[in-house]
C-alpha cells in the first residue's frame, strides 16, 4: 500500500495542528483574560482545520459543517465576551 505525498502531508499537518492545539490550551490557561481569549481563538482555528482534514482523509462529511459553524461562531463568542467584560469593568 503506497501513500501519496498529499496524504502524507495531510498527516504531518494533522500532527502539527495537534501540537498547536496543545500550545493554544497552554496559552489559554494564562492568568490574563486577553491571553485566554487568544488561546481559545487559536484552539478553535486548530480544531476547525483538523475537522476539515478529517473530512478529506476519512470522508466524514458532517465534520466540514461542524468546522464551518466553529469558524463562524468563534469570533461571535469572542466579541460577545469582550463586550461583557467592557461593560463589567465600566461599572
Summarize the model shown.
With 91 residues, the protein is mostly helical.
In DSSP terms, counting alpha (H) and pi (I) runs of 4 or more, how many helices? 3
β-sheet strand percentage? under 5%
- Helix residue percentage: over 70%
Low-confidence stretches: none
Tally the structural domains.
1
Shape: elongated
The structure class reads mainly alpha
H-E string: HHH
User: What's the number of extended β-strand segments?
Assistant: 0
The whole-angstrom Rg is 16 Å
What value does the average pLDDT take?
85
Distance between the termini: 65 Å
Q: Main beta sheet: strand number and arrangement?
A: none
Pfam families: MrpF_PhaF
Main location: membrane
Keywords: Cell membrane, Membrane, Transmembrane, Transmembrane helix
Transmembrane segments: 33-54, 66-85
SSE inventory with pairings:
Layout: H1 5-28, H2 33-58, H3 62-90
Helix pairs in contact: 1-2, 2-3
Pfam families: MrpF_PhaF (PF04066)
Protein name: Monovalent cation/H+ antiporter subunit F
Organism: Methanobacterium formicicum (strain DSM 3637 / PP1)
Structure commentary:
- It is a multi-pass membrane protein.
- It contains 3 helices and no strands.
- With 91 residues, the protein is mostly helical.
- The chain has one domain.
- Helix 1 (5-28) packs antiparallel against helix 2 (33-58) and helix 2 (33-58) runs antiparallel to helix 3.
- It starts with a helix and ends with a helix.
Amino acid at each position: 500500500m503506497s501513500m501519496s505525498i498529499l496524504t502524507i502531508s495531510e498527516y504531518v499537518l494533522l500532527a502539527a495542528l495537534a501540537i498547536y492545539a496543545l500550545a493554544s490550551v497552554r496559552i489559554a490557561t494564562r492568568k490574563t483574560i486577553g491571553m485566554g481569549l487568544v488561546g481559545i481563538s487559536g484552539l478553535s482555528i486548530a480544531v476547525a482545520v483538523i475537522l476539515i482534514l478529517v473530512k478529506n482523509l476519512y470522508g466524514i462529511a458532517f465534520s466540514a459543517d461542524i468546522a464551518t459553524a466553529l469558524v463562524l461562531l468563534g469570533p461571535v463568542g469572542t466579541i460577545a465576551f469582550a463586550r461583557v467584560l467592557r461593560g463589567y469593568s465600566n461599572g
